[in-house]
Amino acid sequence: MRQDRRYRPAPIAPLLAAALLWLPGALGAQTTRIGIEVGATPAGPSLERLDGPGGVVDLSSSIGERPVLLEFWATWCENCEALHPQMLGAFEKYGDEVDFYAVAVGVNQSPKRIRRHLDKMPLPFPVLWDEKGAGVRAFQAPNTSYIVVLDSAGRVTYTGTGADQDVEAAIRTALRS
User: Fold this and answer.
1) Would you say residue 166 has pLDDT above 50?
2) Which end of the chain is more exposed for a tag (fewer CB within 10 A), N or C?
């Protein structure tokens, strides 16, 4: 039985579909829902505070009082580092109106490593340790550099990921609702 050895190109449809799914994320565009649903009213978990006075922060006590911004963050995250100036600028402009939190994910880092990082690059808002993933689960964080903004009623008004998010526009939306 003779085997047919002619070249047969791979079907292009699966390759094209994969490229179309990858391309918006690679370009920083948010074309599909990322993480928790906009409009959801999540309960915030209690997480250990790594900077300042320490202790535990119950996020549910902030959510629903005034707008809240959460950045799921890691010391090794390049997108988080790229977002750093924008986060500092947004905090400087809106820190009196919005509760900001950096949620340090418990992947490939430790409290000691995070504190060393903060000694070199301090943040002006609380840094919380999510060792067991309670925050990641509550807000359905798909990766680091994930930002969730909630309005004063506790409703999610924005989710995004990547280095080129418009943090100030996301905050303005929460302040208007």
Assistant:
1) yes
2) N
Q: What is the mean pLDDT of the chain?
A: 85
Q: Which of 47, 64, 87 is nearest to 177 (CA)?
A: 64
Q: Which amino acid is at 151?
A: D
Question: In the CATH hierarchy, which top-level class contains the domain 39-176?
Answer: alpha beta
Report DSSP letters for 115-141, one per residue. Answer: HHHHHHS--SS-EEEETTSHHHHHHT-
CA dist 161 and 145 (Å) reads 5
Contacts of 73 (CB under 8 A, 6+ apart): 80, 102, 103, 104, 105, 127, 144, 145
* Packing angle of the helix pair 78-94, 167-176 (nearest 10 deg): 40
Give residue limits of the domains in the chain.
39-176
Q: Is the model's pLDDT at 93 over the cut of 70?
A: yes
Taking the C-alpha atoms of residue 74 and residue 102, their distance in angstroms, rounded to an integer, is 9
The amino acid at 2: R
Burial, 118: exposed, middle or buried (Cβ in 10 Å; 0-12, 13-18, 19+)? middle
Q: How does pLDDT run across 4-52, given as a tens digit for each residue? A: 555 444 444 333 333 333 444 443 444 456 899 999 999 999 999 998 7
